[in-house]
Amino acid sequence: MRGESATLDCTPLGTQGHFVLEWFLADRSGVRHRLASAEVQGSELQARVHDSRGRSPPYQLDSRGRLVLTNAQVGDERDYVCVVRAGAAGTTEATTQLRVFAKPEATEVIPNKGILSVTDNFAQEIAVCNSPNGNPAPQITWYRDGQRLEVPMEVNPEGYTATRTVREASGLLSLTSTLYLRPGKADRDASFHCSVRYRLPAGQEGHLDSPSFHLSLHYPTEHVHFWVGSPSTAEGWVREGESVQLFCRGDGSPSPEYTFFRLQDKQEDVLKTDLEGNLTLDGVQRAHSGTYGCRVEDYDAAEDAELSQTLELRVAYLDPLELSTGEELSVHLNSSTAVNCSVQGLPAPALRWTKDSIPLGNGPTLSLSKITFDSAGTYFCEASMPRVPLLSRTRSFKLLVEGPPEVKPEETQPQAKGSWREGDEVRLVCFARGFPEPKLSWSQLGGSPAEPAPGGQGWVSSSLTLKVTSALSRDGVSCEASNPHGNARHVFHFGAVAPQTAQAGVAVMAVAISVGLLLLVVAAFYCMRRKGRPGCCRRGEKGAPPPGEPELSHSGSERPEQTGLLLGSASGGARRGSGGFRDEC
């Protein structure tokens, strides 16, 4: 490779004790120029460089008599002759051909920046590819969309290449290739590039590709495409109130001018003219339905080319629903009724009735017969368009069923005969429904106010908690629901009620004994406080109290414990004696 060192070897065959080795440079005319020599005597070598011919750095001989070329250049590509003189053994020579390889610099391509017409009937310059400073001269190949172009070097109307090689002052070679083609309309999106293939030592090769490029072509319009963009449906419907885009594309280049118009009474109403081919209609209404057109203004097009296209814009709409009844409808129990749902829309909408998300039927009319309280609730009329997704409306009404109330009880536990006992606590629950909402009352006091029952469906409930008695067993407990249309009643029965067990009397007696013992303990405690008094806890004699004992006061200032529990009989003692402490205990 260029820049590396080259060592040329010359080794005599056989065993020679003394010989002279000489190196010569053979020029293109065959004249030899002596470069260096070496005399070999046994193991000793005497080397000498005679003429480097202006080479820098100069030629050198190593210790084995080999010719060394440092920093090889393209100018070193010569024939080098080695001559060996061995006296009586004779003289012989051999020739080495030195080849110096240089990798070219980066490949550059210069495309034609002009607009190429596909209507011309001759080959036009496409691009120039340069591969500078290589050795030996490389090869340039052209590609289109990754496929090699088989282009001859002879000039012809369809395409050819022109190649030029220049030897630079450095001795390196620069190659230039110019591509000529007759472009076609199919080349408008084609990608072109050139590739340089160069040789390396030992039979190897390398390649360098240029950047890719595209052509700017001029060709007339042949076809025009006109369509409705998003959000149209598969059938071309657009929803009222949305923004709609109309797209128009011609296949000419450069992009032609587009004119959008609307046909009304066979007259063109121009809407927009631009080079993009896009028309946006904001917030379309049903009045925007109609015929729209797009025309390409290309004066280079053929006379028979179809440069105008039209389409039908269909705006789908759905007006609010109308019911034959108001928001509420009152009917009587066991009666029949029908409700109509009307709608205006395009395309024709489909109607469906539902209640509690359960389909009831299709069509504009909802018929209800043998109406019960379960029929009450909210009914929905749903209008939709299967051909236009997301376009739907809903209208509802509430059905009120008037009639006398219904009553149902919540069963009480236990239910076995004779399982109730006197004093058992029971909670009774009564459910009722009707319209107007019924009022609930009990035959016993303590019932809770009526409130909506879990599960809905118009039921209300009230509860009553009481103790079971023999009287209730005989008469029962009744729950009555009433409204302006009538009333309904349910009686809760308990059957036979067993009396309380003997254990209850034992418990009462135990409590009484406990209270008596407590009173005795209190009395004993009081006596202990008054120890040392002569008249304590026995009947005292009449007379004054013992010395140091305060007299009993009747002024109302007695201490609570003296006038209360402990002196509960003091007044009686006063009537019987002198007001002493008789019967104090």
Can you put this structure into words, describing what you see?
Keywords: Disulfide bond, Glycoprotein, Immunoglobulin domain, Membrane, Repeat, Transmembrane, Transmembrane helix. This is Basal cell adhesion molecule isoform X2. It comes from Equus przewalskii. It is a single-pass type I membrane protein. The chain has 585 residues and is mostly beta strands. It is built from four helices and 43 strands. Strands 28, 31, 32, 34, 35, 37, 39 and 40 form an eight-stranded mixed beta sheet that branches. Strands 20, 22, 23, 25, 26 and 30 form a six-stranded mixed beta sheet that branches. It has a five-stranded antiparallel beta sheet with strand order 4-3-2-7-8, with no helix packed on it. Strand 39 and strand 40 form a beta hairpin. The chain is elongated and about 160 Å long.
Give short descriptive properties of this protein.
single chain, 43 strands, mainly beta, glycoprotein, disulfide bond, immunoglobulin domain
Low-confidence residue ranges: 536-585
Structural class: mainly beta
General form? elongated
Span of the ends, CA to CA: 141 Å
Tally of helical runs: 4
- What integer value in Å does the Rg equal? 62 Å
How large is the share of residues in beta strands? 35-45%
User: How would you state the average pLDDT, rounded?
Assistant: 85
Helical content stands at under 10%
Number of strands: 43
- Largest beta-sheet characterization: 8 strands, mixed
